[in-house]
Amino acid sequence: MKRLIHSAFVIARRDFGATVLSKAFIFFLLGPLFPLLLGGVFGGIGAKVASQTEQPVIAVVSSTSDFERISAARDRLADSIPNAMIARLAHYAPQGDLAVQQKRLLASHNPPVRAVLTGGLANPHVTGAVNAGADVVSQLGLIIADARSTQAAPPELPVTQTGASTGTLVKGRALTAQIGQMLLFFLTLLLSGMVMSQLIEEKSNKIIEVIAAAVPIDAMFIGKLFAMLAASIVGIVVWISAGALVVQMISTGGVRTLPPPAIGWPGFLALGVVYFAMAYLLLGSIFLTIGAQASTAREVQTLSMPVTFGQVVIFGFAATAIGQPDSAQALAAAIFPLSSPMVMLARAAEEPDWWPHIVALLWQAAWVALILRVGAKLFRRTVLKSGPRLPWWKLGKA
């Protein structure tokens, strides 16, 4: 055991130094910046397009005075509900036959008209491909009721602001749980594949055979896995520090403006690192075992694809626990080892108790030890094999 631990430490120190001290590690640190920039750009474009296409346009055929009152009422409604898709209004003066004008407006493409409002404030009537219970009709009802009112502006309500309330805390903590889960999933999926590429490179260069002659195969497996975990944690520390600095610079209240987790920021960040380590060891050992079965990069991609899709399904399973951490489905996701780190990190954002995390970490550690043992066994049987590869159902007899 002592020789195994010492050999694993030597391998981990070698791989960690070769990874962190290389020039390529700088590009590795810059790697997440590009998807974030692209996601922000295309997300903004998509949101703008969605806003323009989902916001309905209502053609208002009325006098100028009626339209001004209706438009003012519409603006007041939009100011009261900033994120709602309030219908846009376009004014048209009455021209000749009203039925012909309605058909022409409904067939217009610039702008695309959802419905036509006629009759002004006295006898409003909506014509278009909408029913009486449509959102657009309900909005127009509120707008016309406000426009008919003789009151110039709604009354100002006195407000007494408090530090927090149950509703704001639940919503904010659910948002923090969702962000934490997404980051944990993204980082684990992104970083756990590094061990495969390094293993394939060493197998193709026959370096791994030289290393295997000096240290036990199990020590090589454990050392490589923990070396990549340490390198990933270094990258995460750099990314978190840079992200916190950016938020501090562009936000008035800095990081304090983010929704606070129930367990507190120090505990939440500490648990985030620990749960990432658990998730990385669980998934990384699977990827490392896959890498031992393959001899080319194409085979790695073929073998790792089912695992990647499986992780997406597991992430969806874990996401169902947000907002209901004590439900049967959330408890099942917390017990399943591959989804447990993500579920428990979300729980840390929503519940202040520490004892579930202690139990979960012990449970996850047991599964890490089991998967490391099984993965090292398969790694030892396949990493030095040359010649024709045995079918998977004969590996137990190899």
Structure description:
The protein is mainly α and 398 residues long. It starts with a helix and ends in a 16-residue tail after the last helix. The chain has a four-stranded mixed beta sheet with strand order 2-1-3-4, sandwiched between helices. It is built from 15 helices and four strands. The chain folds into two domains: 55-148, D-Maltodextrin-Binding Protein, domain 2 (3-Layer(aba) Sandwich); 167-397, no CATH class. A hairpin with a 6-residue loop joins strand 3 and strand 4 (125-128). The radius of gyration is 30 Å and the shape is elongated.
Return residue spans where pLDDT drops below 50 for at least 5 consecutive residues.
386-390
The arrangement of helices and strands along the chain is HHHEHEHEEHHHHHHHHHH
**What percent of residues are in strands?**
under 5%
The number of helical elements comes to 15
Give me the secondary-structure category: mainly alpha
Biggest sheet overview: 4 strands, mixed
* Share in helix: 55-70%
Instruction: Tell the overall outline.
Output: elongated
For the record, the count of structural domains works out to 2
Number of strands: 4
Radius of gyration: 30 Å
Biggest sheet strand order reads 2-1-3-4
> Mean pLDDT, nearest integer?
77
Distance between the termini: 25 Å
